[in-house]
Amino acid sequence: MITRLISTETANKLIDALKLIHGDLMFHQSGGCCDGSAPMCYPKGEFYLGNADVEIGVVNGVHFYMSATQFEYWEHTHITLDAIPGTGGQFSVERPTGLRFIIRSRLYTDEEWDYLKVHPVKRCG
Length: 125
Fold this sequence. Notes:
This protein is α/β, with parallel strands linked by helices. It has a single domain (5-116), classed as Hypothetical Protein Aq_1857, Chain: A, CATH 2.60.300. 23% of the residues lie in helices and 37% in strands. It has three helices and eight strands. The chain has a five-stranded mixed sheet with strand order 3-2-5-4-8. The mean pLDDT is 91.
């Protein structure tokens, strides 16, 4: 199955630990404001989504969103959510864990892109 988003085992372990503390979660890819361009993890519903956001996928049961305008730059890119040692974004719930979420990316193959062109992302709001 061709997806826009996957997660590593390290990211999944961190997500599982955060779910025990915060319950259901959500991700929103920061667009470069306070914490640069980082995946931000919130308790589900604490970040308000609107018509300007799209859902790019689900990892480990957690929905991942970004702004539609930012997605225009990323639409040709497959994203892998990972976690590495460091301090997370100031608003992201992983901040006190000693780990931070990051994204790794690669361009789609021609076969993947042909599939994704006819399977658009879901707009929010």
